[in-house]
């Protein structure tokens, strides 16, 4: 029997507060992995995380403090100049 599983297999935090998430999409046949692909996405300090995996939400709640969000927005403002 073929089965598809999606798992968060890597979460990285950059020094500016971005959270990089790697999701593995596993194809299993009779419980054995026969294929795997990856999908990555990045969450900025001011992004909505309500639809993210609970692990990612928990990390964002810790990492994305008001100070981190303010610093991130300041870099965006400076880049626009």
Topology:
Blueprint: E1 2-13, E2 19-29, E3 32-43, H1 54-63, H2 66-80
The overall strand count is 3
- Assign the structural class, choosing from mainly alpha, mainly beta, alpha/beta, alpha+beta, or little secondary structure: alpha+beta
N-to-C span: 57 Å
**Per DSSP, what share of the residues sits in E-state strands of 2 or more residues?**
35-45%
Tell me, briefly, the overall form: elongated
Radius of gyration: 16 Å
Low-confidence stretches: none
SSE topology string: EEEHH
Helix content: 25-40%
Number of helices: 2
Trace the largest sheet across and list its strands: 1-2-3
> What would the average pLDDT be, to the nearest integer?
95
Number of domains: 1
Largest sheet: 3 strands, antiparallel
């Amino acid at each position: 029997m073929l089965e598809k599983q999606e798992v968060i297999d890597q979460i990285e935090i950059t020094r500016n507060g971005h959270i990089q998430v790697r999701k593995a999409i596993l194809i299993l046949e009779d419980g054995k992995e026969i294929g795997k692909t990856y999908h990555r996405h990045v969450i900025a300090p001011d992004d909505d995380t309500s639809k993210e995996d609970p692990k990612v939400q928990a990390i964002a709640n810790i990492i994305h403090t008001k100070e981190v969000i303010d610093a991130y927005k300041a870099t965006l403002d400076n880049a626009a100049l």
